[in-house]
Amino acid sequence: MTVTAPPTTRAGAGGPDLTRAALSGRRRFSNHLATTAIWAAVLLAVIPLALVTYEVVIKGSGVMSLSFLTEDIPNSYRREGGGMAPAIVGTLLITGMAALMAIPLGVFGAIYLNEYGKQSPLARLIRLMADVMTGVPSIVMGVFIYISWVLLVGQQTGFAGALALACLMLPVVIRSSEEMLRLVPDELRQASMALGARKWKTTLTVVLPAAISGITSGSLLAVARAAGETAPIVIVTGIVFAPNSNLFDGFNTALPAQIFRNASQPFEAAQDRAWGAALTLIVIVLGFTIIARLIASRFAIKER
Amino acid sequence: MNRNVLSRRVLVGVAVAALALTGCGSNNNSTESGGSGGDGYASLSGELKASGASFPDAYYQEVIEAFKGEAANVTVTYNATGSGTGKKQFGEGLVDFAGTDSLVKDTDGVAADSFLYVPTVAAPITVSYNVQGVDKLQLSPETLAKIFQTDIKTWDDAAIKADNPGVELPNTPIVVAHRSDGSGTTNNFTKYLTAAAGDAWKLGSGDTVAWPASTQGGEKNTGVAQIIKQTNGAVGYVDLSDAKATQLSFAAIKNKDGQFVEPSLEGTTAGLEGAAVEADLSYNPLNAAGASSYPITAPTFIIVKAKYDDAAKAELVKGFLKYLLNDGQNLAKEIDFAPLPASLKEKALAQVDKIQG
């Protein structure tokens, strides 16, 4: 560390030597140290992720089969067999409906905040409220929908669950989409304006495509968060044992609620079903991610 | 520009495909109710929604599963939300009937004369323990109260020795496990101690009580069972079904007649026979008389409307409850619930007939 420290420049070489060998031992040492530390940090971060995935896949794959995906949930916990079809249908429908409500609303809100409202008092108020809403616990949102919707229509339905999840997704979509729109360089907007495009046209054809990749990831985080919510589903949608594809009539259920319900039972059959449901949920969220990535890459402006 | 139009079409296509996918788990949602008061259950059709107590959930689900075989056109859904939520939702008209371990109070939001109690099953609450070297334990109510108040600190205490003549008890410290969540099981257990131990029990009764700081809390029956299973010297109260599933050993409890009785379904049914039944069919089997009755028994009820707006709905409720009280009672023992004694069952069936539609 002390001896081999040649000068960093050599006379007559036509400029500084930038090869690694030219670095001082001390700098090479700290470089190695930092690289090792970063790798260690990556490994540490991956360990819990890998363990969770491993555990869920190992325990979940035991019950995974076509019939698990298509059969009704057995009424009795201790009975083996049966499936999670009602919960899968419920999760797809409820989360899908929630996304259908929250994502357009959230993206439009973000467009208003970044392109029109900017720093006006109304925009600042909306931003503040969105930030506050992000921190609202999901169970509070469940109770809110229970009081304002379930008691109003006199029925626990899948749609009530979708409403609660949409309320949870909305602030996340607004804030993440706004951040993405803010990253679009002003030069793009100015160039579009200079070519004679109106503001709406600029927003629609220049700003949105430039930010679509980020907006999709942001919305997706919101969908993933919503798909894993348990408390509001348990409170506002009730439970079913056979698939109910009607969101507006009758009880419904979702995978997280079934995981919660089955995992707390002492019976092995129920616990196995909970692991299977967990694996199914992870695969569904992964599927959402892949679809969204495909859309984003198809839609985005290619830079290179 | 061309590319942009194309990609928008792709986007729409994907969206449509996604919607079609989510929609294809369809069923022909048979909500049309046209029940008739016919001879068997097969002629019934429609949908019943219920929520409430989680303690009898396993039993109700078993009955619902069996009922499907009898009445193929009826869908019964029972959501184990806890007694409090069940009563609230029943009062709000969200469910057709509710299961509850506790009686209806004024604060539950159910109008006083609008409902009927139907007793369904009962189950013993065990005092489960895990003490190495001890496989037989007898406890009197006073000793039990002192243990759960942590007045008694070790298993070789004189009070426990007095209940267990001739048993070798180790010097292990006692770890008390209780429910951390609000629970009907806690309510029944503490009510029992209040009734049986008298002045020796000082913590009162309720869905939660102020346990001493040195005790351990567990979530649900399964949580308490886990603590007992993993801790040498632990003792706690767990319902029989979960205690058996976790393979715990239980103590025999001294009943009102001075006999030490182990928790069993026979002892529980005997306790129900010894209990005084009120005119509205609410009853309290805790600390019941009778030489063979197990004293810590939790009753559970279904509450139904005295009059349903829809006659078909009333028929459905009657049909399901009759099935539960007749054929359904035979399923109880398999899953460690105690069926009603004949006398109470007759009264319950008469109560079901009072439902108007």
Automatic annotation (TrEMBL), chain A:
One of the GO BP terms on file: phosphate ion transmembrane transport
Domain ABC transmembrane type-1: 88-296
InterPro entries: MetI-like, MetI-like_sf, Phosphate_PstA, Phosphate_transprt_permease
Regions crossing the membrane: 33-54, 87-113, 125-151, 157-174, 203-224, 274-296
Major subcellular location class: membrane
UniProt KW Cell membrane keyword: yes
Keyword set, alphabetical order: Cell membrane, Membrane, Phosphate transport, Transmembrane, Transmembrane helix, Transport
Membrane topology: Multi-pass membrane protein
Cellular component aspect of the GO annotation: plasma membrane
One term of GO molecular function: phosphate transmembrane transporter activity
Compartment(s) where it occurs, according to its Swiss-Prot or TrEMBL record: Cell membrane
Function: Part of the binding-protein-dependent transport system for phosphate; probably responsible for the translocation of the substrate across the membrane.
Similarity-based family: Belongs to the binding-protein-dependent transport system permease family. CysTW subfamily.
Protein name: Phosphate transport system permease protein PstA
Lineage: Bacteria, Bacillati, Actinomycetota, Actinomycetes, Micromonosporales
From TrEMBL, chain B:
Keywords annotated in UniProt: Phosphate transport, Signal, Transport
Domain (PBP): residue spans on this chain: 43-327
Domain of life from the UniProt record: Bacteria
GO biological process: phosphate ion transmembrane transport
CDD domains registered for this protein in UniProt: PBP2_PstS
Coiled coil residues, start to end: none
Matches recorded under SUPFAM superfamilies: Periplasmic binding protein-like II
Keyword field contains Heme: no
InterPro entries: ABC_phos-bd_PstS, PBP_domain, Phosphate-bind_PstS
GO cellular component: ATP-binding cassette (ABC) transporter complex
Pfam families, alphabetized: PBP_like_2 (PF12849)
Keyword Transport: yes
One Gene Ontology molecular-function label: phosphate ion binding
Protein family (similarity comment): Belongs to the PstS family.
Protein name according to UniProt: Phosphate-binding protein
Organism listed in the record: Micromonospora craterilacus
Name of the gene encoding the protein in the UniProt record: pstS
